[in-house]
């Protein structure tokens, strides 16, 4: 990553994610009154005075407990510290110094990274200095009283943090492709992210629901920059209670909306489930480009026909995204993982592709010659006057016709197939707007009346 990094560390439930959201001026980190909500390290872009940097949220550090995710959380926090220019050690001003704070302080004193001791939950400026004074005993220098909720003291903290960041460099403009990795819990999304990056960037566990936040990771391949967004596993709505998982899934849906391309990950052993079908429908509704990634392919018993039969089953069950390319991979072994980015490049390019009006009308003329529009029992036939592309991401084509209701669903699907066969549009949905002549005349009449008035 080219921007300098500020790592946020501390024991559970001291308000690290609240501090991250305050410094980054976003709500990107999940804040919930429950310890252990944050697990992976998550990056948020931040800006202070004339400097840009990344703020990294980490899970709560506990050194004397090796149960569940705690060793993996420590590993993630240590990785964040290793790449940071400065660390912000967050403690709870209302609770005072604890044994866990002392253990973390002892560990931080052994590191080579400068540390700013930040006393959170100092909501009152008058009492804040007294609350902060208790933490001189940790031996990490001056404690900075702040309120992550109200923002008190964060300006002074950022002024001090800037002193430890390397000089600002002129960074070249890069066009990145945003890629969201989505799917049901435990299909291997985080493993796929780690396979791309080549390190344990996200915590991987056989326990479903390990990933809580949407995790952004930037990688570069052959001069192209990709922002990979790992997301929480999306379960059926009826199984979700209000709390961390509720916020996690909302983050996943937002990740789909801000992505250029969505990698929809399936478990090869489970096949396509009802939840996968619903998720495919959501991706199509959002108008995102998509690649279907069948993970754990190494665990499937295969013969010469398996991949073809399986592919047909996936396509038939995911009708909302039948236009999406399909790739069979193993995140564990790395099989075909790098080929995913080749498909991403194509899908991203097609998603923002624009076609001239003359080419669109050539396709329409050819389609009409092969299969003319349907005729009603009363002898009325649909007629397409012309078409033009009105927007991209996704490609959206407006067709101007005599009366839209004369074109049934079968013929509309036929026209879309003709566009795909003639023009490609691999990996992206196409939106078709059928506009009746009567509607256009009414709009033109309204405009004329407004002009006369």
From TrEMBL:
It holds the Pfam family MMR_HSR1. GTP 1 binds at residues 10-17, 57-61, 120-123. The keyword Nucleus does not apply. InterPro entries: G_ENGA (IPR031166), GTP-bd (IPR006073), GTPase_Der (IPR016484), KH_dom-like (IPR032859), KH_dom-like_a/b (IPR015946), P-loop_NTPase (IPR027417), Small_GTP-bd (IPR005225). Keywords: GTP-binding, Hydrolase, Nucleotide-binding, Repeat, Ribosome biogenesis. The keyword Oxidoreductase does not apply. One of its GO terms (molecular function) is hydrolase activity. Residues 4-169, 177-352 form the EngA-type G domain. GTP 2 binds at residues 183-190, 230-234, 295-298. Associates with the 50S ribosomal subunit. NCBIfam families: GTPase_EngA, small_GTP. Belongs to the TRAFAC class TrmE-Era-EngA-EngB-Septin-like GTPase superfamily. EngA (Der) GTPase family. GTPase that plays an essential role in the late steps of ribosome biogenesis. This is GTPase Der.
């Amino acid at each position: 990553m080219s921007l300098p990094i500020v790592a946020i560390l501390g024991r559970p439930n001291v308000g690290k994610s609240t501090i991250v959201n305050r410094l980054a001026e976003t709500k990107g980190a999940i804040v919930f009154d429950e310890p252990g909500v944050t697990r992976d390290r998550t990056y948020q872009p931040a800006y202070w005075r004339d400097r840009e940097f990344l703020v990294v949220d980490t899970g709560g550090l506990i050194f004397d407990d090796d149960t569940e995710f705690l060793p993996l959380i420590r590993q993630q926090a240590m990785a964040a510290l290793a790449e940071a220019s400065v660390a912000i050690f967050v403690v709870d001003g209302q609770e005072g110094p604890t044994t866990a704070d002392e253990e973390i302080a002892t560990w931080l004193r052994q590191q080579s990274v400068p540390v700013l001791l930040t006393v959170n939950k100092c909501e009152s400026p008058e009492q804040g200095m007294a609350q902060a004074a208790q933490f001189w005993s940790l031996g990490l220098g001056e404690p900075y009283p702040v309120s992550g909720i109200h923002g008190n003291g964060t300006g002074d903290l950022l002024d001090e943090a800037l002193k430890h960041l390397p000089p600002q460099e002129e960074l070249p403009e890069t066009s990145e492709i945003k890629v969201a990795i989505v799917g049901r819990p435990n299909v291997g999304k985080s493993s796929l992210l780690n396979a791309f990056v080549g390190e344990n960037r996200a915590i991987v566990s056989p326990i479903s629901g390990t990933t809580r936040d949407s995790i952004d990771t930037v990688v570069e391949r052959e001069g192209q920059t990709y922002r990979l967004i790992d997301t929480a596993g999306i379960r059926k709505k009826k199984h979700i209670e209000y709390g961390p998982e509720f916020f996690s899934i909302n983050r996943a849906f937002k990740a789909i909306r801000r992505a250029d391309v969505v990698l929809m990950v399936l478990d090869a052993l489970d096949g396509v489930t009802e939840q996968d079908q619903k998720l495919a429908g959501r991706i199509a509704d959002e108008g995102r480009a998509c690649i279907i990634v069948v993970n754990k392919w190494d665990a499937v018993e295969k013969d010469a026909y398996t991949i073809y039969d399986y592919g047909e089953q996936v396509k038939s069950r995911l009708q909302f995204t039948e236009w999406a390319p399909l790739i069979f991979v193993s995140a564990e072994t790395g099989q075909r993982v790098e080929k995913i980015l080749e498909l991403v490049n194509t899908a991203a390019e097609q998603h923002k592709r624009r076609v001239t009006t003359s080419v669109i009308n050539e396709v329409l003329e050819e389609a009409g010659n092969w299969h003319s529009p349907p005729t009603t029992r009363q002898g009325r036939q649909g007629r397409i006057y012309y078409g033009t592309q009105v927007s991209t991401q996704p490609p959206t084509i407006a067709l101007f016709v005599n009366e839209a209701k004369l074109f049934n669903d079968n013929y509309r699907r036929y026209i879309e197939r003709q566009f795909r066969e003639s023009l490609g549009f691999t990996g992206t949905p196409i939106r078709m707007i059928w506009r009746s002549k009567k509607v256009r005349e009414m709009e033109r009449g309204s405009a004329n009346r407004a002009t006369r008035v």
